[in-house]
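In response to the reviewer comment on reproducibility (Comment 2.3), we provide here a single inverse folding case reported in full, input and output, so that an independent group could reproduce the run without further information from us. The structure tokens appear first.
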């Protein structure tokens, strides 16, 4: 940048020369991005679903909130999936059912009373 060497006669000329000597203005800063929507705490979302407000927000009208509400079906009362069908076990070829061991021999008399001895 060169220094201003021209003699100025008025205030307007001085301002015009100074404005011409200034560097160009920087471009405007980009606009900040909008903030993401705040997350609702989990308990507010939970209780709103339990109260049936979520269906009301979606445009589903169910009277007083008592019909078609699935919010209170947790725990014991909720529907459970059906168990798979049972299949009959087929033994592999060459399989035999287990056999019982022979019964133990009859116990021998050990007691003197049972042997018939008396005092």
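Designed residues, in position order:
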């Amino acid at each position: 940048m060169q220094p201003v060497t021209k003699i100025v006669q008025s205030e307007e000329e001085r301002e015009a020369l100074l404005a011409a000597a200034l560097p160009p203005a920087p471009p405007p800063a980009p606009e900040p991005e909008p903030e993401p929507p705040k997350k609702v705490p989990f308990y507010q979302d939970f209780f709103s679903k339990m109260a049936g407000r979520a269906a009301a927000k979606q445009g589903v009208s169910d009277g007083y909130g008592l019909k078609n509400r699935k919010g209170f079906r947790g725990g014991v009362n909720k529907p459970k999936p059906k168990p798979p069908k049972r299949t009959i076990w087929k033994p592999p070829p060459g399989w035999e059912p287990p056999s019982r061991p022979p019964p133990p021999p009859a116990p021998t008399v050990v007691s003197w009373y049972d042997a018939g001895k008396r005092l």
